[in-house]
Design a protein that fits this description.
The complex is a heterodimer.
Chain A (H helix, E strand, L loop, with lengths): L1 H14 L1 H25 L4 H12 L2 H10 L4 H19 L1 H30 L10 E7 L8 E2 L16 H10 L3 E16 L5 E8 L3 H5 L3 E4 L14 E4 L1 H8 L9 E4 L2 E9 L14 E4 L22 E2 L2 E6 L5 H18 L12 E6 H4 L4 H36 L1 H9 L4 H39 L14 H19 L1 H6 L4 H5 L12 H39 L9 E6 L8 H17 L3 E7 L9 E7 L8 E8 L3 H5 L3 E4 L4 H22 L7 H4 L5 E6 H7 L9 E4 L14 E7 L14 E5 L5 E7 L7 H11 L5 E6 H8 L1 H35 L1 H9 L4 H30 L15 H27 L3 H6 L2
Helix pairs in contact in A: 2-3, 2-4, 5-14, 6-12, 6-14, 6-15, 7-10, 12-15, 12-18, 12-26, 14-15, 18-26, 18-28, 18-29, 26-28, 26-29, 28-29
Chain B lengths: L8 H14 L2 E2 H11 L8 H13 L3 E7 L5 E7 L1 H27 L1
Antiparallel strand pairs in B: 1-3, 2-3
Helix pairs in contact in B: 1-3, 1-4
The chains are: A alpha+beta, B alpha+beta.
Chain lengths: ~950, ~110
């Protein structure tokens, strides 16, 4: 039972330490009094007795200490006292503590937030079961297959590879391939008209195969997933909602399951809702619901025509992913899939390629192959990461510098401790405790900043995505641990600085007062200051880099804002209408638009109204080839194309340079021509002869207006008005039916078409006689005030005609400039932060310098130096640091900013004006930071300085 | 007699254990008793005594109790535990072996 007793005693000394210590005091006191009593009994008087007793007793304190030593737990006691002392020291210099803690917190928090965001957007695994097993099908061939149609929806990087295949091929793979435990197909999303849940709206639906959810391993939040049975054309149509859309459009109502809605006039039932974490298979894309491919014959896009898109082997629009069977390697599966593809392409029902074209399938891990819209944000995120990394560096340098300065001040304290008997390890442990305490405080605060920062960044960047930000961003604890570790390491490393010197036995030097002007020898103090100098210069230099980047981005944004896009952007209301998905045909659409245009133009507050196929600067554009008259046969030129309505140019404020604008007669001509072409196409498809001469006469050339760039490029030496251009001619596709071509009736001024940054393309404007349209209303006052009236008018015409993308032209422009705005905001924030940190570092260093040289300053002034001399002495150091640091920073900036060149507009990466501006800003602020210590130096009273010991 | 001899830690333990083996004593009494019995040769310094007492207590060879003395004061009385008794026997035996060996060496040469 001895061990039990020992344990009991150990616990007592740990938890009842005070009481045990008190008892020890009593015990020793008792002993002393017994000795006194004995002395008195031996004949001394009480006074003498006491003296004698105390003398023989020896040192009660050391006795008690040695007794305490036996109690164990010594290390714990020491740590506790270290902590208490550390807290006291930190509280004694609140400025230093506050700055250091905030610097650490900011560095940790900002970095963690950014990296968490990047992780979610760029690196996160696919939100499905066992994503490593999923592979996506890509294909290659030496020639272009003879498609009927070819569409991509932004799932893979089509500059590098092709991932759209045909539905027929998917069926083949599903039936015959043995390397996969499951194969799924998907395509889209496509915009559809959804009605039956409040007013009709546009929703985005993704076509999926029946086994999509089971292959991917996606769970349902409610209801059932789509299954194989939904692949049948005769199955009752069903859709599955995305979780986000269910929350937004149905309010999370559980009774939505089983409800019927209409998609483009087809009744479907809502069968289920997916789990929240499944936003999409392709990162960055969203969709509102999933519908089976079987519905693609009834619920379709206006662009599709009449062929069965899903089963047509020559329409490539479907993506295929497969889950590898365990034990099957990717090479094996690729071999098999390639064989099936080659078979289908060369020997299938509709051969699209020759054997010599070597059609092949390549499999790629879904996580790498499907990158979708992530590509757009990637460069932005890399720049932000670099910026934040630099700022973290500056923050660490700042803290390091602060600690070095503090260490220098405490040299004397360390010497005294050593002299009193503290061992080196003891001193190091105490300093370590202080640094750890500081780093812990910084880390705890940093965690808060990180949590808040993740939310702030998400809100900032997702605001440019409209509804349904496609990423789920969560705080990444690994990153937090990493950044805390880094800052801990920095804090501890530099916190130990005083220990390295102070713990050595060079006590006399430390205890002496006048080391400060013992000269610029290689003293420890001089060395430490050089390191401090280097740190401040590094901070200044890095701040210059960050500020230069920010400055360039600010100028870019300014340039883009100031850019004249070629039309008047003020007070224009934009909105889109898509009548074809509500069942309108070409002629009806054209009439509808004309009617609506008149109605809108008659509204009070509307100066003029028009419409076009796409709104300007919305990111979308289309184009095709034309054949110039007189050019060699089968050679074409490419031009951008924009179908527009009446009064387009006057509404948008685009100058007409020559000729005329469209008249209603032009629209009639265009309609008639289109109808003739369509009829001829239908007849030739139904098996009629080649060019039907009868309809040739009814097909007049379509009147078009070209822009100045077009005229200059293709009609440089002549007047384009009245000239004719032919339809595009292709060698291997002889013309079927009438080819009336186009007739130029006017030349308009240049405008930017799809975006602000792109160059001015040669553009051809046609009368808009079919498809969807975007309306532009030029208003006298605030455009958004008219939205209600517009909706009224449209719904009066047809309740099932939803408006979409309602915004003003200025809002549209801001949307396209979203990336630039975010980048500018973030980089300016970090630039200023870097500047503030650098100045704090500079200020700290200089004020320490002044404090250290107070005596020297006093002597100089006593010997007659003027104030100006003193000022120069102190300021010289500061200015030297700033100049050297800034010079280094400018050099670094020149080297680094060239990587940003692609993000800039109309500003060179080494723009001298920006650099000069940054240097000036830095100089001003740095001077301010020098000012305070300099003033303190000037106010030194020589008498006080000399007397101060 | 003269200056107190340096007492090795182990022997101090032995002395303390022996002294309190008959009846519990407080620190002062232990020091006095050792002094007395050794005829003033061994004078234990307080600086060694109390650390030793606390060390022995932590090892659970002696246990302590606060009691009233004859004069009515509160004092910490130490007594042997069972383990302490065993330790005492062991130390005593060690000591006699050691001292016998030393004696042999000193007397033979």
């Amino acid at each position: 039972m001895v061990w039990a007793r020992r344990l009991w005693l150990r616990l007592q000394t740990l938890f009842r330490r005070e009481r045990v210590a008190q008892r020890l005091d009593d015990e020793v006191q008792f002993h002393l009094e017994q000795q006194i009593a004995e002395n008195i009994a031996a004949g001394m008087n009480p006074q003498e007795a006491r003296y004698a007793a105390t003398r023989t007793f020896g040192n009660p304190t050391s006795t008690k200490e040695e007794a305490r030593d036996t109690w164990g737990w010594f290390w714990l006691e020491q740590i506790a006292s270290d902590l208490r002392y550390g807290v006291r020291m930190l509280r004694r210099s609140p400025g230093f503590t506050a700055v250091a803690v905030m610097t650490l917190a900011l560095g940790i928090g900002a970095n963690t937030a950014i990296f968490s965001f990047i992780d979610a957007v760029l690196l996160r695994a696919l939100p499905v079961a066992e994503p490593e097993q999923l592979v996506v099908f890509m294909w290659t061939a030496h020639a272009q297959p003879k498609f009927t149609g070819h569409s991509g929806y932004g799932d893979c990087d089509t500059r590098v590879t092709e991932c759209s295949l045909s539905g027929r091929f998917y069926e083949t793979v599903r039936a015959q391939a043995k390397s996969f435990s499951g194969v799924a197909a998907f395509a889209g999303p496509l915009e559809m008209d959804l009605s039956g849940n409040g007013p009709a709206s546009i929703a985005r639906g993704e076509y999926v195969s029946g086994d999509f959810f089971s292959t991917l391993g996606v769970k349902m939040e409610l209801g059932r997933p789509l299954g194989r049975e939904d692949d049948s054309r005769s199955a009752p149509p069903a859709i599955v909602l995305s979780y986000g859309y269910w929350q937004r459009a149905f309010g999370g109502d559980r009774s939505a399951i089983g409800r019927m809605v209409r998609l483009n006039n087809t009744e479907v039932v809502i069968a289920g809702v997916t789990e929240p974490r499944f936003t999409s298979l392709t990162p960055g894309k969203t969709q509102d619901f999933f519908l089976p491919f079987a519905l693609s014959d009834r619920v379709k896009s206006e662009w599709w025509g009449d062929t069965d898109r899903y089963l047509d082997p020559a329409t490539f629009w479907v993506l295929i992913v497969g889950r590898l069977k365990p034990g099957v390697s990717m090479a094996q599966a690729q071999e098999e899939a390639s064989g099936l593809f080659r078979n289908e392409m060369v020997r299938g029902a509709k051969p699209l390629l020759k054997e010599a074209d070597e059609p092949a399938v390549r499999l790629e891990r879904a996580a790498q192959g499907l990158n979708g819209e992530t590509l757009q944000i990637a460069p932005m995120l890399y720049v932000i990461t670099a910026t934040v990394g630099l700022v973290l560096f500056i923050a660490c340098a700042n803290v390091a510098g602060l600690m070095l300065a503090r260490a220098a001040k405490r040299q004397k304290e360390m010497a005294v401790r050593s002299a009193l008997g503290a061992g080196r390890r003891r001193i190091i442990r105490q300093l370590l405790t202080e640094s750890v305490l500081l780093s812990m405080l910084g880390g705890a605060l940093g965690a808060f900043v990180a949590v808040w920062g993740v939310q702030a960044i998400t809100k900032l960047i997702s605001s440019g995505f409209g509804e349904g930000f496609p990423y789920v961003v969560r705080l990444d604890w690994h990153v937090l641990a990493f950044t805390i570790g880094v800052t801990f390491a920095t804090g501890i490393l530099f916190g130990l600085a005083p220990a390295r010197s102070g713990a050595r036995a060079e006590l006399t030097a430390g205890l002496r007062e006048n080391e400060s002007y013992v000269g610029r020898k290689e003293g420890r103090a001089a060395r430490r200051l050089r390191l401090g100098d280097a740190l401040v210069m590094a901070q200044v230099g890095l701040s210059v880099v960050v500020l230069t980047g920010a400055g360039l981005l600010v100028r870019t944004l300014h340039n883009l804002h100031e850019l004249n896009p070629g039309f008047d952007t003020r007070n224009i209301l934009l909105f889109g209408i898509n009548p074809t998905i509500a069942g309108y045909r070409d002629e009806q659409s054209a009439q509808l638009y004309h009617y609506l245009q008149e109605q809108f133009a008659a509204l009070p507050g509307v100066a003029s109204a028009s419409y076009s196929e796409e709104a300007l600067l919305s990111g979308a554009w289309s184009g095709f080839d034309v054949h110039l008259d007189g050019a060699p046969p089968n050679t074409n030129v490419s031009t951008a194309v924009l179908p527009v309505g009446l009064n387009f140019f006057s509404t948008m404020g685009i100058r007409l340079i020559a000729g005329r604008t469209f008249t209603p007669a032009d629209f009639a001509t265009a309609s008639a021509t289109n109808r003739a072409i369509q009829t001829a196409e239908e007849r030739s498809q139904a098996g009629g002869g080649t060019a039907d001469r009868v309809s040739q006469a009814q097909a007049a050339p379509i009147p078009v207006i070209v822009n100045k760039a077009f005229a200059r490029k293709f009609f440089a030496k002549e007047n384009p008005i009245g000239k004719h251009m032919g339809n595009a001619e292709y060698e291997d596709e002889p013309a079927k039916g009438p080819q009336p071509g186009y007739s130029i009736v006017g030349v308009a001024g240049n405008t930017k078409y799809a975006d602000l940054r792109g160059e001015l393309r040669p553009t051809m404007y046609l009368p808009l006689v079919r498809n969807s349209a975007h309306f532009e209303l030029r208003t006298a006052g605030n455009p958004t005030a008219l939205v209600g009236l517009v909706r009224d008018i449209v719904s009066r015409v047809d309740k099932n005609l939803p408006l979409f993308e309602v915004r003003t032209q200025t809002e549209q422009i801001e949307e396209t400039l979203f990336q630039e705005r975010v980048m500018t905001r973030l980089s300016s924030f970090f630039g200023l932060l870097a500047l503030v940190l650098a100045c704090i570092g500079l200020y700290g260093l200089l004020s320490y310098d002044v404090a250290r040289r107070t005596k020297e300053v006093g002597i100089r002034m006593a010997l007659g130096a003027e104030q100006g001399h003193v000022l120069r002495m102190v300021a010289r150091r500061g200015i030297r640091l700033v100049v050297v640091g800034a010079a280094a920073g400018i050099g670094a900036a020149l080297g680094v900013t060239r990587f940003m060149a692609s993000m800039l507009y109309d500003v060179r990466a080494n723009d001298p004006a920006t650099i000069a501006g940054v240097a000036a800003l830095l100089g001003l602020v740095a001077l301010a930071a020098c000012w305070i210590p300099v003033r303190r130096a000037m106010r030194v009273d020589p008498m006080v300085a000399l007397r101060y010991e | 007699m003269g200056k107190p001899n340096d007492l090795v830690q182990g022997t101090l333990d032995l002395l303390i254990l022996k002294t309190i083996s008959l009846e519990p004593k407080h620190g002062w009494a232990i020091a006095k008793r050792i002094q007395q019995i050794s005829r003033e040769v061994l004078q234990v310094q307080q600086g060694s005594l109390y650390p030793a007492l606390h060390r022995l207590e932590q090892k659970a060879w002696i246990k302590a109790k606060w009691k009233e003395t004859e004069t009515g004061r509160q004092a910490k009385f130490y007594s042997l535990t069972a383990a302490g008794r065993a330790q005492l026997e062991k130390e005593a035996e060690n000591w006699s072996r050691l001292s016998a060996a030393i004696n042999l060496v000193v007397e033979t040469t």
